[in-house]
Amino acid sequence: MKRRFPAPGPLSRSFAALVALTLAAAGCGSGAKGSGKDITIGLITKTDTNPFFVKMKEGAEKEAKAKGVKLMTAAGRFDGDNASQVTAMENMTAAGVKGILIVPSDTKAIVPSLAKARAKGIDVIALDTPPDPQSAADALFATNNLTAGTLIGRYAKSVEGAKPVKIAMLDLNPGITVGVLRHNGFLQGYGIKDGDPSIVCTQYTAGDQAKGQTAMENCLQKDPGINLVYTINEPAALGAYTALKAAGRTGTTMIVSIDGGCTGVKAVQAGQIAATAQQYPLKMAAQGVDSIVAWARGGKKASGYTDTGVNLITAKPQAGLASKDVAFGLANCWG
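The line above is the sequence of Sugar ABC transporter substrate-binding protein; the predicted structure tokens follow.
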């Protein structure tokens, strides 16, 4: 049975016009195709202070400008701040974005929000950190974090050889995919497993320099003989170096890390970090923007995983292990 409605009066006609304008601006809240400035893309990073995410934002802004589209940005207050990312996704969905690029802070907790956005026709692409499960996003543009960890693990093993080691593992946060992948990659590259007696201390740092320093101090209290330190990223590595320097252990303890940021590569140059695995956040962001724009303009939606590359950077290369020098690292840091 058809429902009958009264003829619209002036107020209802005004309201209808407002709704029509809102839907037009939002692309009807779905993946409606468009061109030019009617395309808006969202970018949500873990924080807006970590240099890695600062560079990612710069890459997205530059590419959005080049493609003639609008970019909305947001970030968590700290690494692990899922609530702020959920709010950002809701705000961007309400604003009518065609796609959202996100670096998940809590890779499990964000999944329902990703599902809601995708149900509204929004193209959701994860950058750097895969959600858990990875299929919760339409696509992933990221470093192969397992490979990154493997590279620095192999480097450390190449240097240390068969010598006995006491290892400190300065990790990210419990259960976060990028941290788990890097941790496991390091162990794989070094040729050991969790629980190996050579691992004398494991601490979480949230990828933060101050927390990395505290974690290293705690590990040195537990075992002053630590001579190899794995760190989740370079801020944590520099925090660890500060603690080791205060303890007079910099000459006997090797630090390996991941990121390849400009500050991190300079730390390799200075001998504070022995080697780092360089990744490319600007490339991740630019490719993510390009993918959403191409789909919004009638192309094919990206799916699956796109590897954005990783290189081992060191000032002291090891035979049989491919690496790039500091000059390359500085020329390509955050590229």
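Note on the example: The domain at 145-278+311-332 is CATH 3.40.50.2300 (Rossmann fold). The longest helix spans residues 10-26.
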